């Protein structure tokens, strides 16, 4: 049974989703199952992570079909780290949803769909088959479409249409790219593709396929010219939904980009150049977008775009140090972005508004909560020793080494603008005197809800802040992890060997 | 829609279509068919019945909400995939009974997976159609 170990996080999420569907009408039971299940999932993920850390890459051939023909599941350090981060963010958002999402939304199957979304994410990280990756992306997109529309407010539906149209387009392009790749090589297994693509004579066609993948994943991860759906939709659903979207959905696109461009399309100077240019524009445009917004959640949405640039720039420079920086940033970003959207939800619960101009006086009225919110906000900026600071060292070192001074300029510019944006937010929301906000009669304000709900809203923020603090103060550990991942990614032969040279147990 | 001809015919067609859907489900392992198509045919049987006799009568016939079939089917599919893990094989490996059964032939874990799909498809289709016709 230990041979199937890496599938357990996946199967557990599926089991949870099915179990939750049996309790369709019983919201309170669903709350408890979701929270306990997420806790168990975190424990399982930690266990599997420890196993992979000690024993190296593991594979499972689903249905015992041998490697290039069947569907392979593979957990290298990168994949299992992402699974672990998914379960951390999943646990936090599960608790947060239980406290903050109103019952009318939960009644439409919020929790089962939420766990189907986590299932899709876990599957996308663990699969070693490019068509299977597409299937997991479909599960993610369908679940996320349900989550974004649950409740059916006008603004929500408007955002959802934009979200769905562009993501669906991305899926079509991704599928086309797979079809072309299959036509070129006759294989769908990623390790097998790595060998076969390198041997294809028609390099121009390979490059075009790579560009198709880049566009498909680029829309999903919101890189420069393709990000417009993100700020148009992420501020509309309940903040618990935005939290899981902001934390993980764009990152699965980044994961796919990193995976495909370190395994299948490797060492093409032209593609790396494109990635660099896109990343630089992403950093600039995301930062400038965040500067002019007034709605807190829109500010965070643009910051997501901006910081996607850091990961893509690391991939574009394509040195071991740069990719280590990108991975470290990915770890930090998932935790912080999830937390920030939960914080925007907490602010909304307290004041009934997310407009920076209307808010104020948080520090005077809620000093403890303000100090709590200080941690993720300034981790995002990267004030040393908080977590956002460390990956930038690697990225800046790498841009000196590769001599790409434009990247250096973009990294520093984006950090600076992030600082300005967060400082502005801090001054407006926390330091400015409290403003008069019209009281909504039916709104469930923070001071009106039960104690248990308040705990469910605050505890996940505390939990993620603690993890962020660990990433900041225990940066050495995360750096070790990131370096190991990047050396695995740069020497992709071990991945290929792990998939193609496994013996199937009879 | 409730003409005498349709009403009479649907009473005979319901069991015929259900049996046919099970036939399609069973032949699907090697031939065209399987859980998905079978499930659709079974759903059509109930939809036709609802057209002829009204939604309430069909609901009375079903006795439970069709949405309940979704988790049941998913659970069945899940456990058929998990069964090989218990005997130390890879997830979703096909396990087969050594002897063929009369009438249905060889039975393996793939059949239970297909039955799961069959139930999920009936559940989803009927839930969608019932919801739409209720609000229409």
Automatic annotation (TrEMBL), chain A:
Residues 129-418 form the NADH:quinone oxidoreductase/Mrp antiporter transmembrane domain. It is found in: Cell membrane; Membrane. One of its GO terms (cellular component) is plasma membrane. Its main location: membrane. Its EC number is 1.6.5.3. It holds the Pfam family Proton_antipo_M. It comes from the Bacteria. PANTHER family: NA(+)_H(+) ANTIPORTER SUBUNIT D1, NADH DEHYDROGENASE. This is Cation:proton antiporter. It comes from Salegentibacter salarius.
TrEMBL record, chain B:
Keywords: Cell membrane, Membrane, Transmembrane, Transmembrane helix. One of its GO terms (cellular component) is plasma membrane. Residues 5-127 form the Na+/H+ antiporter MnhB subunit-related protein domain. The chain crosses the membrane at residues 12-30, 36-55, 67-87, 107-132. Its main location: membrane. InterPro entries: CPA3_antiporter_subunitB, MnhB. It comes from the Bacteria. It is a multi-pass membrane protein. It is found in: Cell membrane. NCBIfam families: PRK12509.1. Belongs to the CPA3 antiporters (TC 2.A.63) subunit B family. This is Cation:proton antiporter. It comes from Salegentibacter salarius.
């Amino acid at each position: 049974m230990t041979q199937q170990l890496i599938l357990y996080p996946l199967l557990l999420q599926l089991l949870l989703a099915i179990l939750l569907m049996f309790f369709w009408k019983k919201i309170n039971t669903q709350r408890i199952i979701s929270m306990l299940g997420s806790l168990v999932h975190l424990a399982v993920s930690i266990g599997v992570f420890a196993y992979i850390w000690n024993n190296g890459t593991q594979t499972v051939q689903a249905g015992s079909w041998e490697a290039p023909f069947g569907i392979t599941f593979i957990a290298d350090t990168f994949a299992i780290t992402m699974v672990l981060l998914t379960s951390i963010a999943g646990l936090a958002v599960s608790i947060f949803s239980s406290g903050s999402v109103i019952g009318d939304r939960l009644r439409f199957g919020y929790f089962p769909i939420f766990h189907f979304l986590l299932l899709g994410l876990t599957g996308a990280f663990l699969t070693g088959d490019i068509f299977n990756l597409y299937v997991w992306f479909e599960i993610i997109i369908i679940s996320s479409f349900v989550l974004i529309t649950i409740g059916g407010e006008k603004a929500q539906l408007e955002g959802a249409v934009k979200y769905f149209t562009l993501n669906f387009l991305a899926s079509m392009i991704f599928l086309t790219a797979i079809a072309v790749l299959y036509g070129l090589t006759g294989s769908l297994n990623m390790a097998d593709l790595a060998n076969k693509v390198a041997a294809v004579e028609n390099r121009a066609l390979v490059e075009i396929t790579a560009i198709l993948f880049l566009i498909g994943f680029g829309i999903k991860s919101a890189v420069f010219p393709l990000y417009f759906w993100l700020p148009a939709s992420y501020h509309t659903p309940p903040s618990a939904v935005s939290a899981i979207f902001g934390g993980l959905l764009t990152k699965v696109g980044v994961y796919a980009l990193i995976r495909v461009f370190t395994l299948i399309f490797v060492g093409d100077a032209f593609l790396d150049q494109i990635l660099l240019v896109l990343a630089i524009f992403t950093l600039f445009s995301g930062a400038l977008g965040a500067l002019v917004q007034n709605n807190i959640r829109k500010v965070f949405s643009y910051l997501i775009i901006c910081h996607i640039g850091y990961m893509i720039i690391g991939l574009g420079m394509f040195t071991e140090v740069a990719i280590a920086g990108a991975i470290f940033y990915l770890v930090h970003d998932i935790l912080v972005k999830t937390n920030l959207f939960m914080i925007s939800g907490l602010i909304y619960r307290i004041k009934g508004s997310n407009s920076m101009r209307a808010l104020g006086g948080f520090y005077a009225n809620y000093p403890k909560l303000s100090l709590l919110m200080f941690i993720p906000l300034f981790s995002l900026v990267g004030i040393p020793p908080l977590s956002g600071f460390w990956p930038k060292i690697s990225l800046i070192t790498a841009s000196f080494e590769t001599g790409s001074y434009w990247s250096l300029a973009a990294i520093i510019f984006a950090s600076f603008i992030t600082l300005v944006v967060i400082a502005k937010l801090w001054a407006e929301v926390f330091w400015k005197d409290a403003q008069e906000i019209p009281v909504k009669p039916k709104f469930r304000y923070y001071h009106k809800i039960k104690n248990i709900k308040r705990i469910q809203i605050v505890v996940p923020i505390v939990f993620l802040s603690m993890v962020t603090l660990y990433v900041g103060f225990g940066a050495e550990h995360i750096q070790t992890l990131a370096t190991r991942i990047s050396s695995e990614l740069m020497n992709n032969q071990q991945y290929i060997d792990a998939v193609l040279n496994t013996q199937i147990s009879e | 829609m409730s003409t005498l001809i349709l009403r009479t015919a649907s009473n005979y067609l319901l069991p015929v279509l259900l049996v046919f859907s099970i036939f399609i489900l069973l032949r699907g392992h090697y031939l065209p068919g399987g859980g998905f198509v079978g499930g659709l045919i079974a759903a059509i049987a109930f939809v036709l019945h609802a057209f002829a006799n009204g939604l309430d009568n069909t609901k009375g016939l079903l006795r439970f909400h069709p949405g309940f079939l979704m988790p049941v089917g998913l659970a069945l599919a899940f456990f058929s995939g998990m069964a090989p893990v218990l005997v130390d094989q890879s997830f979703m490996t096909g396990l087969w009974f050594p002897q063929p059964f009369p009438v249905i032939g060889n039975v393996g874990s793939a059949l239970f997976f297909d039955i799961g799909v069959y139930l999920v498809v009936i559940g989803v289709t009927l839930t969608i159609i019932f919801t739409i016709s209720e609000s229409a």
